[in-house]
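Checklist before submission:
- one chain only
- standard amino acids only
- sequence pasted in full

Submission:
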Amino acid sequence: MKRAALLLLVVLLAVIAACEAQSTQPAATPESIATPLTPPELPTLSPTVAPEATAPRISPAVTPLSQPMLLRRSCGKDYVLRADTPITLYYGGWPTKTLELAEMWATSLVVDLEIDGQPVPGQPQAPSADLPYNCPKDPENSYWVYYATYLGGLTPGIHQASVTFHALRQLPDGYGDALYGPGELAHQTFSVRVIGVPPSPTPRPQPSVTPTPLLVVDGRNQAIVYADILGLGWENWSWDSTVHVASSQHAHDGTVSIRAELEPWGALSLQYPSGFRTSPYHWIELYIYVGENTLRRLSFVFNGNSDNDLLPRLLIDDPEYIAGGAYIANRWQRVRIPLAETGGADRVIWGINFNDASGDGQEPFWVDGIRFVGATPVLSPAPATTPVVLADHASQSVVYKNALALGWEDWSWYSIVDLASSEHAHSRPVSIKASLRSTGAVSLYFPRFSTAPYYWLEFYVYVGENTLRQLSVYFNDASDKELMPKVSVDDPAFIAGGTYIANRWQRVRIPLLQTGGADMDILRINIKDESGAGQAAFWIDDIQLIPAVPPSP
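Returned file contents:
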């Protein structure tokens, strides 16, 4: 009995000692459980100015007061933002066919973002069946892996953004048998134009900035490889393939194109046996029509004089090279490859090869308008306070204003054109109303008009309710031959405001240097349907060619 009482006393003393020890520990506080995030100071990045040594402080939080932006090449490469509002920026959209694959990619995809050469941190988002602000060209029934970040704003001017995709391991995307990674998958560049007044009430002093030269196509410096026929000296040396160099099924320029059907690893091969020097040129350019099959695996490489491949071998499917960023079924699209990214820059080549890279062969596709083109440096737009060039409206040449100017005639085709429509007008009382059938065009003719004094083609367009247009602009030379390249009227770089707005007049201004019509005698200005489905009614007004004058010092 005494032994049991003694044992009970020992237990009680141990319990009391433990309680006293616990009471000496500090009580748990919310701070010791979780430290709340403090919103960082919002950054403001300046265009074209060398970045500071420290990275911008960025929070991935999304706020309803911010303006959203989705950087994807299939949405475009040029964007317009306001300077007075923070930005929620989404980037790195990678599609997969199933949620399971998306979850695998979410742990393997790393996407780097830079703005004006400065790394910008972001956070991966949970895989989703929808991307914020999806583009019409996105694959249906997809699951997306993407990143997001938050910026406090960008100063007015032109900012350069780049997005680089890396895979940590090799994975499929579910759309075919192809595997991607490990390593770099793609590198995409974008231009972001910021308009408006900076949010700061007192502008920060900016160092003097020298505008960066921008390279645009010099349509006067070109060498034709194929345009209806093979250019002088070029021959068809294709292998493991069926090639017709005068197919009338589809044509981008003229009446025929090259139709190619490739066996596994076969190639459309165009050779220049005496050797062709690429030194005067900056790009190789062509137009491709892939038909219904947009999942192509076509590579491109030059040949040396021993029939050896001049590496690297490039994929024509690269979004960097395709106008619009991805193939579109049953539509001609431009492919433009910088020679500096190939093994054929500034040297003599003996051939051009378009190879099947899938190992399964290629069903028929068509190519047209193959050429080497030079580059012309022009000054990119500087910040709004220091414009590079100004429009000289006092010296303009009017093509249409309420009526066609003296000497201009309507030579439109596959279209219904009313030169005096009173439904809508930018300069009252009338404008041109046009409805186009498939591949139809508004074509305005002048017996011989010199563009030498002029810098831009400018007009105003009213698209009505349909803001999803596919219209091109190009010129015909004095022999009535089409001058390449055609440029897209839908390009955000040309549209005031960056995109069409329903039921509103908007200015379109296209630098002639980006067309084939600079410093030339022309016969026509053409605005053509490129959708293949025709164009519902739209209106154009105040068509004019405008010279440029440098700003006053």
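Reviewer check: Residues 297 and 439 are 28 Å apart (CA to CA).
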